[in-house]
Design brief:
605 residues, mainly beta, Maltoporin, Chain A, 5 helices
C-alpha cells in the first residue's frame, strides 16, 4: 500500500510539472491567428478592427458554465446581463442581453452570435438565446468589438461573438465526463466523446444543467446535445456537418418590487449545418449551408415556431505574401408563425441577400491597407451599402498600430415589425464607428497589452413609445458613444498568469444594462497538481432602470476557483462566487445571489 501511495504522489507531481512546462511554452504573440475578423485565418496584427480571443483553458479557469459570461473576464467592453444563478431567462429588462461598447438592443439583436461562423438567432425574435451556449462544447471564442456588418450583415452592428467548437485532433478515442453540484440545488452533468481515424473525425456531447433558482418559481433546466463530424477529402478539401438541439424550461417570478406573477417559458432550439471547405497555397474559403429551427411555448398562451435558413460562400485569393482579396455571398431567409400579432396560419418570410469584397494590401513590409464594401439587399428595405476601411502599421515585430472606420446596421426584426408593440413602418438602425488601437508585446513576449480609443455615432434606434395597448416601437433614438479600452496579460512566472482589462464608455444618453465603467482582474496560478484562479470585477454606474426614475448599480465581485489534477484522468474543483457577499441587481427587481459555490469532478479518458 505504501508503494502504491508513493507511485500516485509521483504521478501527481509529474502531471503538475508537465502542466507548468506547457505554460512556459505557451507564450503570448502578436501573430496569433484568428478567423472571425477576416473570414479566413489571419494574424491579429493584420486585422484593422479590434478582435479578441479566449481559449478553452481560460474559459474553464473562469469557473463559468455559460461561455458568454466568461468573455468579460478576458475582454474589455463586453457585458452580459444575468438574473439568476443559472439560466439567463426571459425577464423584462433584457436578461441575457449582450452589450459591446454600450451598444445593445432589447431584446439582444445588435450583437451577432455565430457557431463556427453560422449565424444563431431566432427567425421571429431576431436574437440569440444566451442559455444555449455551454462551455464544454467550445474550443475558443473570438470577438469583434465594433461593427462587423461588412462581413456579417445586419445583426453585427455592435460586434460579433464567434464560438468555435471542439474538434478531435489526435488519432483514437477521447472521452470526457463531469458533474457538479452547488448552491440552490444547482447541478450540471456533461459528457463528450471525440474520435479520429485517419481522415474522419467526430465530436459528440451532451449537457444537462438545472437549478432551483434564487427565489421561489425561478427554477431552470436545460438539456443540450451536439454532434459534429468532419471528413478530409484530400489535403485541400474537407467536409463538416454538425447538429445541435437544446430544450429548456425557465420560470420567472417577476420583480421583487411587484406582486409575484409566475411566468413560464418552454423552448426548443435546433440547428444543422453543412460546410465544404477548401485550402490551397494561394486561396482558401468555404461554402456553408445552415438551418435554425425553434418552438416557443409561453404560459400566457403565446405559441410560435420559427426558422432561419442560409447559404454563405466566400473565397480568399492571395497573389503574394502581402496581397489578398476576399469575395463573398450571403443568402438568408427567416420567419415563422405565431398566434399573436400575426395571422396564425400565415408563414411570414423575410429574405436578405448580400455580395461583399474585402481587400488587404501590405506595403514596405510594415503598412497594411484594408478596405471593403458590402451590398446588402432586403425584401422589405431594399439596398443597404456598407463600406469599411482601415490600416495597420507594424514598425517592429512587437508593435502594431491600427485604425479603422466601419459602418454597422440592423434591420428591424419580425417581432418589432409585427408582434410586440409593432410598427411595420420601422426603418433600419445605422451607425459609424471610428477607432484607433495600439498593440504591444514586451519582456520577451511575456507581456502583451492593447489600448483602444473609439467613437461611435448612430441613428434610427428603435425604442418603445407609450405603454400598454397603445405602445408602439418607433425610430426615435440616436446615440454618440465614445470611450477607451485596455486589456493586457502578463506571464509573471512560468506558472503565474495575470489578466486585466478596463473599459470606459461615455454615453450621450442613458443606456440600459451597459455599465459606464467595467474593470476585470484575474490571476491564475498553477503549482504541481493544483490550479488556482481568482477574479475581481468592478461595475460602475450600470443602469438597471431608466424610466420613470433612473436606477443605477455599482458593485465589486470576487470569484475564485481551485482545482486539483488528481491523476492524468481525474480533476476535481471547487468554485466560489460573490465571495464579498455584495447585494446588487443587474436586471431591475431581480436580486443576484450572495455568496454561492459549486464543486465538481471532471474525468478524461
Amino acid at each position: 500500500m505504501k508503494q502504491i501511495i508513493l507511485l500516485c504522489i509521483a504521478g501527481f507531481l509529474a502531471t503538475g510539472e508537465v502542466n507548468a512546462q506547457k505554460q512556459i511554452t505557451d507564450s503570448v504573440r502578436l501573430d496569433e491567428v484568428l478567423v472571425t475578423g477576416s473570414k479566413t485565418a489571419a494574424p491579429v496584427s493584420s486585422i484593422p478592427v479590434s478582435v479578441s480571443q479566449v481559449n478553452r483553458t481560460e474559459i474553464e479557469n473562469s469557473g463559468q458554465i455559460n461561455v458568454l459570461t466568461a468573455l468579460s473576464a478576458y475582454m474589455p467592453g463586453i457585458f452580459v446581463t444575468e438574473r439568476n444563478i443559472l439560466g439567463f431567462g426571459v425577464s423584462t429588462g433584457g436578461s441575457g442581453a449582450i452589450s459591446i461598447r454600450g451598444i445593445s438592443s432589447q431584446p439582444n439583436t445588435s450583437v451577432l452570435v455565430l457557431i463556427d461562423g453560422h449565424p444563431q438567432y431566432q427567425g421571429l425574435f431576431g436574437h440569440p438565446l444566451s442559455d444555449a451556449y455551454v462551455a464544454s462544447d467550445v474550443e475558443k471564442a473570438e470577438v469583434i468589438r465594433g461593427p462587423a456588418s461588412i462581413l456579417y450583415g445586419s445583426n453585427a452592428m455592435a460586434g460579433v461573438i464567434n464560438l468555435i467548437t471542439r474538434n478531435q485532433r489526435s488519432e483514437g478515442l477521447n472521452l470526457t465526463a463531469g458533474a457538479s453540484y452547488g448552491s440552490y440545488n444547482t447541478q450540471k452533468y456533461f459528457a463528450t466523446a471525440g474520435y479520429k481515424k485517419e481522415k474522419w473525425s467526430m465530436f459528440v456531447s451532451g449537457n444537462h444543467d438545472r437549478t432551483d433558482g434564487t427565489r421561489a418559481n425561478t427554477d431552470f433546466r436545460i438539456t443540450d446535445g451536439y454532434l459534429k463530424t468532419s471528413y478530409e477529402i484530400n489535403k485541400n478539401l474537407s467536409l463538416t456537418a454538425d447538429f445541435n438541439q437544446a430544450s429548456y424550461n425557465a420560470n420567472d417570478n417577476g420583480s421583487v418590487y411587484t406582486d409575484p406573477a409566475p411566468f413560464n417559458i418552454d423552448i426548443l432550439r435546433a440547428k444543422a449545418a453543412l460546410s465544404f471547405d477548401n485550402r490551397f497555397a494561394n486561396a482558401d474559403g468555404s461554402v456553408k449551408i445552415y438551418h435554425n429551427y425553434g418552438k416557443h411555448i409561453l404560459s400566457d398562451g403565446f405559441r410560435s415556431t420559427d426558422h432561419n435558413n442560409g447559404l454563405m460562400m466566400y473565397e480568399t485569393f492571395r497573389w503574394d505574401k502581402g496581397t489578398s482579396l476576399t469575395a463573398g455571398l450571403d443568402l438568408k431567409q427567416y420567419g415563422g408563425t405565431a398566434n399573436r400579432g400575426l395571422n396564425a396560419d400565415t408563414l411570414l418570410g423575410i429574405t436578405e441577400a448580400a455580395l461583399y469584397v474585402y481587400a488587404s494590401q501590405r506595403l514596405a513590409g510594415v503598412l497594411s491597407l484594408n478596405a471593403g464594401f458590402r451590398a446588402e439587399f432586403h425584401s422589405l428595405y431594399g439596398f443597404e451599402p456598407v463600406p469599411m476601411g482601415g490600416l495597420t502599421y507594424s514598425p517592429s515585430a512587437n508593435t502594431v498600430f491600427k485604425t479603422s472606420v466601419s459602418k454597422g446596421f440592423r434591420n428591424p426584426t419580425v417581432m418589432e415589425l409585427y408582434l410586440y408593440a409593432p410598427n411595420p413602418e420601422l426603418k433600419p438602425e445605422r451607425m459609424v464607428n471610428y477607432e484607433l488601437s495600439w498593440l504591444q508585446t514586451l519582456a520577451d513576449s511575456k507581456l502583451q497589452f492593447e489600448l483602444t480609443a473609439f467613437y461611435a455615432r448612430g441613428n434610427n434606434l428603435i425604442q418603445v413609445a407609450g405603454s400598454g395597448p397603445t405602445a408602439q416601437r418607433q425610430n426615435t433614438g440616436s446615440f454618440r458613444n465614445k470611450g477607451i479600452e485596455f486589456s493586457g496579460k502578463y506571464r509573471l512566472l512560468p506558472n503565474l498568469m495575470i489578466y486585466g482589462n478596463y473599459s470606459y464608455t461615455g454615453f450621450e444618453k442613458k443606456v440600459l444594462a451597459a455599465p459606464e465603467q467595467l474593470a476585470n482582474l484575474s490571476v491564475n496560478y498553477r503549482y504541481k497538481i493544483w490550479n488556482f484562479n481568482a477574479g475581481l470585477q468592478h461595475v460602475e454606474k450600470l443602469y438597471t432602470r431608466i424610466t420613470p426614475t433612473p436606477v443605477t448599480e455599482t458593485y465589486t465581485l470576487l470569484n475564485a476557483r481551485a482545482s486539483a489534477q488528481l491523476s492524468r484522468t481525474v480533476n476535481i474543483y471547487l468554485s466560489g462566487n460573490n465571495l464579498l457577499n455584495k447585494h446588487y441587481e443587474i436586471n431591475y427587481g431581480y436580486p443576484m445571489p450572495g455568496i454561492n459555490w459549486n464543486t465538481g469532478v471532471k474525468i478524461n479518458y
